[in-house]
Amino acid sequence: MDIVIRAAVVFVLLWFVLRVSGKRQVTQLSAFELILLVTLGDLISQTVLQEDLSLTGGTLAVATFTLLSVLLSWLSWRFRRPRRLLEGEPTILVKDGHVDDTVLRYERLPVDDVLAAAREHGVRDLAAVDLMVLEADGTFSVFTRSDAASPGDPPRRGSDVS
């Protein structure tokens, strides 16, 4: 039982550290995928190197992490509130060409990163940006004023179709 408790505590600690470290630190991997990969690697190496001295202990630790990961993934899929807590939410950095400095400070994101993301999306001037979003996975989405729906475009989901 001690192994299950230690594995659960380490899982929660790793999740917390990744959430506090910021979205840009875990680009492309979800926090759970990163936790699972790092921890499973360590648990497997401890079992293989016999630091735990017990195959059962290593198997139990890996099973605990896997079970927690599956449970939290299911909760995230099923319910909105746990999803926001576990995976994070997109954050609006630029709206109508104006950078939100408060959000940049909160996300610990230099304005140079915002400018670089705009350039990567082919935008030279932030005044042309309608919306720039820091996604939960650490990537940037940039919508320029020219991205607005034209009259021939199909309606977007949730829009009024009258």
UniProtKB/TrEMBL annotation:
Residues annotated as domain YetF-like N-terminal transmembrane: 2-75
Keyword Nucleotidyltransferase: no
InterPro entries: DUF421, UPF0702_alpha/beta_dom_sf, YetF_N
Membrane-crossing segments per the record: 53-75
Membrane topology value: Multi-pass membrane protein
Similarity annotation: Belongs to the UPF0702 family.
PANTHER family: UPF0702 TRANSMEMBRANE PROTEIN YCAP
Name of the protein this chain belongs to: DUF421 domain-containing protein
